[in-house]
Structures are given as C-alpha cells and as structure tokens.
Design brief:
alpha/beta, 5 strands
Length: 248
C-alpha cells in the first residue's frame, strides 16, 4: 500500500510540553473515536521538506489523540493514464480520503505555485464517486515550504483547491521559509517559530474536526443535490420550519 511509515511517532523534541494541550478539542465534542486525518505532501525528493513537515504534523496529531495516515504519491499515475483511473495507488488514495474526517496538505513552492505532485493527488480525488463524496465536508489544514523567503502562494492555491473540493479549510496555516535551515541531519524540525506555527495549525485542525463532526451531514446538505436526486423534504422531520416560525 502507498502509505509511509512514521519513524519515531511519539518523539517530539521541538515541543515544549509545558505549554501544550494534549487534548486541544476537549469540551468541543466527542473525542472518540479518534479523529481520522489523512496527510498529503508534494515532493518525491529523498529529503523532501514538505514530507518532513507532514511527518512532524502527523506526530503532533497523534499526540493530540488522532489517527493519522500519510499517503506516498511515488507510484501515482497521471490522470487518465489508465482507463477509468484503474490503478492501485489511485484506489488507495480515494479510499484514504473516504476514510478521513480531516486532511493536511503541504506543498513546496515551485515557480511560485504548488508542485505537480501535489496537484496530481488532488486531481485524482473526484467530487463524487459512486454516490459518495471523498472530500466534501472534511476539514483541511494547508501548509507550504519554500527554498527562499517566506511566501504564501502555495497555501493560497491550496485554499482555492480546498474550497473547490467542498472542504472546510481552517483559518490558520503554515509557511516555512528556507526550509533547508529548519531541519537537523535526522530530518527532525528544530525548535523555531515555524515549528510553533505548525503546532498551532494542528491544534486548530483537531478543534475544527471535533467541533464539526456531529454536524457534517447537515452542513453539506444542498438543495440542488436533493433536487437532482429527487429527494423531497419531509415536513415531519424538517426542523427548520419550527426554528423559523413565530413564537406563540
């Protein structure tokens, strides 16, 4: 399966535990079962900084009580390269997206934009698949890494894509400048304001995922889709008329 193993999943050397909440969504909703988070990165380099950022994010999410899976895009074909996109890596990516309640996307910035590897993964996620929707209603956190000064081109593009995929993109985001300076020889992120921002983003993702969990079906319910499917509203179960009726 195209999943990456997470090395040292519980080792968080850059995290100052004096200031961290191990359950940031406590009181916002049910924490069980653990929130399911899919993480995608946008580079196939042996020392990929977008992957290293994703791995740090996955460790933090595990610390916050989530279940995480990191997709490895190395064997993903181009869209339409196989008839009906019938390829094991495509099937795996779509199944992982269906499994997830939230996602994290991290892309390098290349030529002022997200990479083709990042876009390739998103292009393989259909809005609708056999009556199911692999991305709709899921929470999303966006991050980027840059070789030069800090930029927000990639995270802005990822926000556009998240909106297009009908996801709930959280307000916070991470942009790591000169990423080659931010990791040690073992591939672990050094303590810095950039690392602290990733902690902030993962805390917020957990909160939004838990907060929206019981309301996802209602938040993505659409008139146009009910009309297309021929599903009329049942007045006996529709509570909106009660909520908007004049008080007696």
């Amino acid at each position: 399966m195209p999943l990456r193993d997470l090395t040292d999943p519980d080792h968080l050397p850059a995290l100052d535990r004096r200031y961290v909440l191990d359950r940031p969504a406590l009181g916002l909703g049910a924490g069980d079962p653990p929130p399911r988070i899919l993480l995608l990165y946008g580079s196939l380099r042996e020392r990929s900084y977008s992957r290293l950022c994703i791995e740090e994010a996955a460790r933090l999410l595990r610390f916050f009580g989530c279940e995480t899976r990191i997709f490895d895009p190395a064997t993903l074909p181009l869209p339409d390269q196989h008839a009906g996109d019938d390829h094991p890596a495509v099937h795996e990516l779509r199944e992982l997206s269906m499994w997830s309640e939230g996602q994290v996307w991290c892309s390098p910035e290349r030529h002022g934009q997200i990479t083709g590897i990042m876009k390739l993964q998103i292009d393989h996620l259909p809005l609708s698949m056999g009556g199911m929707r692999p991305t709709q209603g899921r929470t999303l956190a966006v991050m980027q890494v840059s070789a030069g000064s800090q930029s927000f081109n990639s995270v802005n593009s990822l926000r556009v894509l998240g909106r297009w995929m009908r996801m709930v993109t959280i307000p916070n985001q991470s942009s790591v400048a000169k990423a080659f300076n931010e990791f040690d020889d073992a591939g672990r992120m050094k303590p810095s304001s950039y690392y602290d921002r990733i902690v902030d983003v993962m805390e917020e993702l957990v909160r939004f995922t838990v907060l929206l969990r019981p309301h996802t079906a209602q938040l993505v319910d659409r008139y146009s889709e009910r009309k297309e499917a021929g599903v009329p509203i049942d007045a006996a179960t529709d509570l909106s008329s009660i909520a908007t009726s004049p008080q007696s």
